[in-house]
Amino acid sequence: MPEQPPIRRIALHLPADLVDWLQGFAEISHRTVEDVVRPLIEAERTRVEENWN
Q: Do 37 and 22 meet the contact criterion of CB atoms below 8 Å apart?
């Protein structure tokens, strides 16, 4: 089994309405907030890296 990359925790200060929406969206889609946010960040990272080069 391949070794998993290290994981670190970060804290964000977001507007309460955005946090409420995010938690609600994750709940109704039967996912965690991490499961919702990770693909968005990864997609943005890919987009930025492609445009950077």
A: yes
Q: How far apart are CA 40 and CA 53, in angstroms?
A: 20
pTM of the model: 0.76
* Domains in the chain: boundaries: 16-52
Phi-psi region of 14 (alpha: psi -120 to 50; beta: other; left: phi over 0): beta
Least Cα distance to 34 among 12, 17, 2, 15 occurs for 12
Q: Would you give per-residue pLDDT tens digits along the chain (53 residues)?
A: 788 889 899 999 999 999 999 999 999 999 999 999 999 999 999 999 999 98
Helix boundaries (H) for the chain = 16-28, 33-52
